[in-house]
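Entry 14. Structure prediction run on the chain below.
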Amino acid sequence: MRFTDPEDFETTVAAVAGNAKIRPAKGALFSAELELVSFEKVGLYTVRSDSFEVSIEPPHDFFSVNIPLDLPFQIGNKSNRRLYTPGDAYLLRSDTSLDLRAETGCQVLVGTFFKVPLLAYVRRLNQTGSKVSIPAGAELSLSSPRGINLQSALARSWSNIRYNGVNNSSKLWAEEHEDQLLSSFVNALVPDKEGGSMLYQASPACLRTAEEFICANLEIAVTRDRLAEISGASIRTLSRVFMKRHGVGPIGFLKQRRLEAAYRSLLGSEPDATTVTDIALRYGFVHMGKFSIDYRMAFGERPSTSLAR
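Output returned:
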């Protein structure tokens, strides 16, 4: 859907963004494209705009994960703004405000998790009837194992919905789909009753260092020797801890992260400004046929389909 009136845009996204105030960040003209899917517990949408500013004041009945696609955005007031680039994510809690600004373009994927069913889900996972909440100051990095898992779930979910459509006639499908997204979000942010992450326990320092190096260097050559040097662990040790944590070795992990980066870039690019080949080569994929197969297995659609959206 394309909008030229910000008030129409506000009305359309109210179900997943509450009383959001939306305006062009620069100039008087407003133009934005929106793709939106809303379930009972979770909402997913993408926004593409040349100039975009949104503010949301607490309290609101949802949490949201905001991921830039190819183009960055800024969060914060005029005196204190932080730049979020592809590979980052901004977590909006139900008791915090949002001041998002992008003067030269905004392309963002947003996952919204409604507060009441989310906290009920946390109680069931913790097997407790006591009151629970998202911890204060919870941060989300897409280069962390928890952030990687959540980003993958959101990306795959969004791609599957766009490629296959939404089966509104199947309550079973919808409930299982929401469960997958809720589980990824909760495991990323909420401590269990023993105080650790529900999914990820403390990892060896060498693993964290290698993960962070890989995620920060997706467009340059990364070798096993270099990872061993950076992390201070042997190649064999790194392979063992990566297999234990991620089910793949460090190079397999690198490939997964590059596929996700390619997905973000394709989803956030204009078809007349770049090509699938350009983006594939940027992330080290030189065999286009194999790239297309791996991409479709990961996201449920062809690279060209993502670029054309």
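The longest helix spans residues 145-164.
Filed with the rest of this week's runs.
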